[in-house]
Amino acid sequence: MIIGCPTEIKPQEFRVGMTPNAAQEAVSHGHEVYIQTGAGAGAGFEDADYIAAGAKTVGTAEEVFAKADMIVKVKEPQAVERKMLREGQVLFTYLHLAPDPDQTHDLIASGATCIAYETVTDNRGGLPLLAPMSEVAGRLAPQVGAWTLQKANGGRGVLMGGVPGVGPARVIVIGGGVVGTHAAKIAAGMGADVTVLDRSLTRLRYLDDVFGGTFKTSFASAGNTIELAQAADMIIGAVLIPGAAAPKLISRAQLADLKPGAALVDVAIDQGGCFETSKATTHEDPIYDVDGIMHYCVANMPGAVARTSTIALGNATMPFMLALADKGWRQACLNDPHLMNGLNVHAGQLTYDAVGEALGIDVIAPEVAVKG
Ligand SMILES: NC(=O)C1=CN([C@@H]2O[C@H](COP(=O)(O)OP(=O)(O)OC[C@H]3O[C@@H](n4cnc5c(N)ncnc54)[C@H](O)[C@@H]3O)[C@@H](O)[C@H]2O)C=CC1
Ligand SMILES: CC(=O)C(=O)O
Ligand SMILES: [Mg+2]
C-alpha cells in the first residue's frame, strides 16, 4: 500500500501524523511511504530522518494526496484538504465530526473511507488513540489555566500554590477520565486545592483509591457542579461522551455567579465544548472574556508540545496504521471490532451513530459498510 503523510495546516499545529520510526515500520512491512517535505520539522524530525527510514519525500500536499491509498494525519482535514480526498482512499486521523457539519458533509461527499482516532476503542473501555493526546492536554490544562489566571491576561491574579499565609487556588475538574486525571495530578502538584467531578461512581471510586490524599472527588450532579464552580478560581472542562457533542454544564447565565476573573479551560472544545460560552480558539489567540470570566478553548492543545505529542501519538497509532496497511481497511476492521468503531464515514455514508444523532444525518452500521 502507498501511505501518505502531509504537513499539518491547522494554525499553529506542529505535530505530524507519522514519525520516522512509524515510517520505518511501514516500509519494513513492504509499504511505500510518502512524506511531504518539511512535514516533521515542527516536531523536530528532518526530511533526512524519513529518508533514512526508507520513506520518500514529495514537495506538495497535492502530490501526497494524489499518490496515497491511505492518508495518515493528526488533525481533522481542513477544507482545502477535503477537496483532495477521493473515493476509495482511506483517511486515518482525528475527525471530531459531531460539532462540525461542514467537515462531515465534505467527507461524505468525498467518497473516502474515514477512520477517526477518537472513536477507536480498546477492551478496557478506553479510547487508545485519544488517550495519549488527552494525557498531554490534561497535563497542559493547569499550566495554561495558571497563565490565564494572571492579572495581565484578564484573570483573577491568583497563584496556583498560594504562598505561606495565603491559601492556594481552588481548581475543579469536570470529568475524571484521562484528561481530568492528568489535569488534577498536575494542578495538585502545583499546590492547588483540587476537586474532580464525574458522573461515574466507579470512576470516582478509582480516583479516590489512587489519589485520595492528592485531590478530592465529587459526584457531578448539576447542583454540586455549580456550587463548586462558584467557589473556584479555575474550572477545567474534561467531559466526554464518545463521538457525541459535549453536554453543556455551565450556562451563560451561571457565569454571573462565578468569581470575577475565574479561568475556564475547556479541553472538551474539540467535541463542541462543555460551557455554553465556549468557542474554539487557537494557540495564536487562545483566550477571551465573556462577562468577566476568562475562557481558554484551544482545540489542538497538544500541538503546543509537538515533539512530545507526535511521539506519544505515533506510539499509539502505529499498530492500527500497520493493520490497515497490511490487511486493507475492510479486513483490518473485520478482524478488530475496536478499529471498526473508528469508522465514521465510508463511500458517501455516515457510519457513526452519535455523529448522526448530533447532526441529524442518516447512518448505516459500520458492519454493513465494511461488507458493501
Ligand atoms: N482540546 C484538546 O486539544 C484536546 C481535547 N481532548 C478532549 O478532551 C475530552 C475528554 O477526553 P478524555 O479525558 O480522553 O475522555 P474520557 O472518556 O477518558 O473521560 C471523560 C470523562 O467524562 C465523564 N463524563 C461524561 N459526562 C459527564 C458529565 N455530564 N459530567 C461529569 N463527567 C462526565 C465520563 O464519565 C468520563 O470519566 C474529549 O472531548 C477529548 O476529545 C483530548 C485531547 C486534546
Ligand atoms: C485529540 C485532539 O483533537 C488533538 O490532539 O488535537
Ligand atoms: Mg482537538
Features:
372 residues, alpha/beta, Rossmann fold, binds 1,4-dihydronicotinamide adenine dinucleotide, binds pyruvic acid, binds magnesium ion, Ala_DH/PNT_CS2, EC 1.4.1.1, NAD(P)-bd_dom_sf, nucleotide-binding
Describe this structure in words.
Substrate binds at residues 15, 75. The active site is at 96 (proton donor/acceptor), 270 (proton donor/acceptor). Keywords: NAD, Nucleotide-binding, Oxidoreductase. NAD(+) binds at residues 134, 198, 203, 239-240, 267-270, 298-301. This is Alanine dehydrogenase. It contains 15 helices and 15 strands. It is α/β, with parallel strands linked by helices. Helix 1 runs parallel beside helix 11 (306-327), helix 6 packs across helix 7 and helix 11 (306-327) packs across helix 12 (329-335). The radius of gyration is 21 Å and the shape is globular. The model has no long low-confidence stretch (mean pLDDT 97). The chain has two domains: 2-119 and 306-371, NAD(P)-binding Rossmann-like Domain (Rossmann fold, 3-Layer(aba) Sandwich); 131-299, Rossmann fold (3-Layer(aba) Sandwich). The strands form two sheets. An eight-stranded mixed beta sheet has the order 3-2-1-4-5-6-14-15, sandwiched between helices. The longest helix is centred in the last third of the chain and has 22 residues, at 306-327. Strand 14 (343-346) and strand 15 form a beta hairpin. Residues 270, 299-300 line the site of magnesium ion.
